[in-house]
Amino acid sequence: MNSNYNYAFLDEGSKREIRRSVLKAVAIPGYQVPFGSRELPIGRGWGTGGIQLTLSLIGPADTLKVIDQGSDESVNAVNIKKFVGLCTDVETTNDTRKATLIQTRHRIPEIPLRNGQILVLQVPIPEPLRIVEPCEEATKKMHAEKDYAPMWLQLYESLVKYKKVTIPTEYPCMVEGRYMMNPSPIPKFDNPKLHRAECLYLFGAGREKKIYAIPPHTEVVSLAFDDIPFERESFAGKKCRLCGSENTYLDEIFDPQTGERFFQCSDTSYCQEVRRHVSE
Amino acid sequence: MAYVAVSGGKEAIEESIKLLDYYKSGSDKDIEIEAIENKLGLLVDRVMSEAGLYSRTYAALALKQCEGSIEEAVFLLRAYRSTLARNYYTDTVNTDDMRVLRRISAAFKDIIGGQILGATYDYTHRLINFTNGESAAELHLAMQKKLAGQEPAEIVSCPRVSTGLKKEGLIDSFPQNDLNPHDVTVNMLEFPADRSARLQTLARADTGFISGLAYSSLRGFGQVHPTVGELRSGYVELCVPYPLSEGESVYIGEIMITEVECFNTADDKDQLKLAVGYGAVFGRNETKAIAMAVVDRELDSGGPHPAQNEEFVLTHGDSLEMNGFISHLKLPHYVTFQSKLDSVRKTRRPADE
Predict the structure, then answer these.
(1) Residue ranges per domain, chain A?
(2) Given CB 3.0 to 4.6 Å as the disulfide criterion, which of A34, A94, A157, B21 pairs with A72?
């Protein structure tokens, strides 16, 4: 811990302001609360929304886990842990079950989170409607009027053109039947984990200066038509080459020598746990 | 297998930082902070302006730390700024009282207070001087000697060129607004933006971004050719309200700024008037100040062009935000790309599969 800086880097007033925005976000699930995003020693677009949430919430009793693309050891995850370690003395862990606060980019852990855990997601573009409307002033009105027709139209046009809904990650969902929400660039595979979860999900967009939340037990439904159900990424017939799991999100890996294709769990901590159980 | 990019992050970062140290060790000559501050003054000005933090010494420190990268230096200052509480807003500065070092008007030959060319590269020939010239110490001493015998001129208040045109009714006048600004460093910028938020955002914007936008407007994607009514740079005094006594202020120091007013013709019902665009930036950064004034006016007028679109202009010019988001593309995107691949593959499979 570097004592030149305040605990958790930001000044206390800023942290309190962020926590107030979090409370508002929890009170209105799926609604994007604007906040005075502070600049950090880590790049805008590198998870500063999530880091500000983590910094404003973290205390000595917490255990922190940071993952990037599902991995605890990824350069960005390591870098964020290093930064939090500079200005707090909290314990860090790779174990999803032990963490009280988990910051993540692009994944939700495979192990279901429980009551008392907070998952902080880093969000590049909080606005789900941005793909159909570039202007913030217009999308704010659309949310106010619950005018989500252009997004439905986008889905429909994709079906007509490709016979599939082609939105990959950042697949929009409706929260408690009121606000359309961008779940951040998690794969569609993870969307169902948001629905009626035990834990609190917080979303932070530093560059776009928005915070939003899914409190426990909230209804979160991925957009779909009655006759065309929501479809996740499919890994049918494939399994992790390390732990053998057939029900996880898989990274596709090429052997540069042979050109052979492998799959392995994107959630490295989960993968290790399965392997430990197998070997015991 | 060679491809295990998702692990070993910690060692990779440590080794990467060592390599940075190697790049910085390229010569045994040191650059002193004082030298950066005083001999690379325009670079320091630009960094302070884009960081929105006025400290020559810290800007020089930041530049030294990052091999002179403007975006990295701005980044360091902004991050440092986040650790400080915002305690006061200064009183509104009346730039009529500026200690003027340079002042020109492209609109009128004779202006009250006179034109002062001051220091400018505008009329130099840009020929590289291949000899390194005299030593720093000699140059410094010679300049001090020259100045020693001179009497400082009396500082006189210098009314703005636009004041006369306002009196004539050619430029709209507005009542003084002393409200605290909508501070974009502590509040999210919302649209339509408050004018104070707009000016603050433009003043902190990346010099290249805002200059390019202004250029697009001059070339035809906008109102074409404004006139620089006045450009002045010099020192202004800053005061903050004295907390223990209502209505009193305390002097806290002075800063160097460059301020510009541009004039455009504009509709005024069935006649014409002049409309002003305003620019003010830290230090001597005239292109940015003029560009800011051009863009300010474009945003007032609105229209179909990029420089006239408030959201477009104000959300894409922040050094930290643009460089941060562009550089994040270097982060791994294995998960999202896997999902994209899945979407692409699904559309290419025969429908009956």
Answers:
(1) 12-221, 234-280
(2) A94
DSSP character at residue A182: -
CB A206 within 8 A of CB A37: yes
Q: How many CA atoms lie within 13 A of B317 on its CB side?
A: 32
Which of A11, A48, A233 is nearest residue B338 as measured by Cβ atoms? Answer: A233
How close B251 gets to chain A, by Cα (Å)?
A: 26
Q: How far apart are CA B208 and CA B205, in angstroms?
A: 9
Q: Is A259 helix (H, G, I), strand (E, B) or coil?
A: coil
Chain A from 205 to 224: CB within 8 A of any B CB: 207, 209-210
What would the two tokens of residue A275 be? 């392997």
Query: Looking at this predicted complex, what is its ipTM?
Result: 0.77
Rounded Cα gap, residues A201 and B297, in angstroms: 43
> What would the two tokens of residue B238 be?
């800053």
The third-level CATH classification (topology) of the domain covering A12-221 is Rossmann fold (3.40.50)
Spatial CA neighbour of B235 closest among B261, B260, B258, B255: B255
Length of chain B: 353
Residue A147 has φ and ψ, to the nearest 5°, of: -95, 90
Chain A residues touching B334 at Cβ < 8 A: 69, 251, 266
Q: Is the peptide bond before B306 cis (omega within 30 degrees of 0)?
A: no
Amino acid in the structure at residue A260 = E
Element (H, E) at B330: none
pLDDT tens figures, A125-174? 999 999 999 899 999 999 999 999 999 999 999 999 988 898 989 999 99
- How many angstroms separate the CA of residue B6 from the nearest CA in chain A? 5
Pairing, β A210-214 against β A200-205: antiparallel
Q: Which phi and psi (to 5°) does residue A194 adopt?
A: -80, -25
Output the CA–CA distances (angstroms, integers) from residue B224 to A64, A98, A240, B213, B263, in the order listed. 55, 62, 61, 12, 12
Q: What is the pLDDT of residues A37-93, one digit of tens each?
A: 999 999 888 899 999 999 999 999 999 999 999 999 888 899 899 999 999 999 999
Q: State how far the Cα of B103 lies from the Cα of A77, in Å rounded to an integer.
A: 51
Catalytic residue among A87, A173, A199, A271: A271
Q: DSSP string of B144-201?
A: HHHHHTPPPPPP-----HHHHHHHTTSB-------SPP--TTTS---SSPPHHHHHHH
A vs B: CB pairs below 8 A? 168
d(CA A213, CA A233): 24
Residue B196: CB atoms within 10 A of its CB come to 15
